[in-house]
Amino acid sequence: xxxxxxxxxxxxxxxxxxxxxxxxxxxxxxxxxxxxxxxxxxxxxxxxxxxxxxxxxxxxxxxxxxxxxxxxxxxxxxxxxxxxxxxxxxxxxxxxxxxxxxxxxxxxxxxxxxxxxxxxxxxxxxxxxxxxxxxxxxxxxxxxxxxxxxxxxxxxxxxxxxxxxxxxxxxxxxxxxxxxxxxxxxxxxxx
Length: 191
Prior knowledge:
Layout: H1 2-10, H2 13-16, E1 17-19, E2 23-27, E3 32-37, H3 42-57, H4 60-64, E4 66-72, H5 91-99, H6 106-116, E5 122-123, H7 136-145, H8 150-159, H9 171-179, H10 183-190
Parallel strand pairs: 3-4, 4-5
Antiparallel strand pairs: 1-2, 2-3
């Protein structure tokens, strides 16, 4: 197919498969990225983020109009508690909720969100009202983990498809509940 040919032209074998002491990660020609933790900790999350960011820097999401991110954890998945019930409890959601628990990795998570947030791209494993733009979980996890990243929730809102992504409406009230009405939170409402 045309996408497979483009994929093989853009990505070297080392771009689409890695195995370390901590993770096994792969990306394929149908828009699916898989990460399996061997050791779950800051080093594994760092390696996984490097893998993801390299793919997105080379245009993986643009090639497929989004993608699916599937993660196998060793520990129980956790989700963004402030958005429980508003965002789908996917493994991608859990990955970013866990990654931001390591403050040293937050800039890598931000870089992922900056690369992934593209209006009209979609997580391919979500349907209907649960569907959202790639980077959603990263941007929102950052905003709720650290007040200095609240602007990422605004960036997510700007890149959302206003006609289809209704879950974005849950973010501003949850930020007010978490932080109160502050200048940073107000910018999320008015972006």
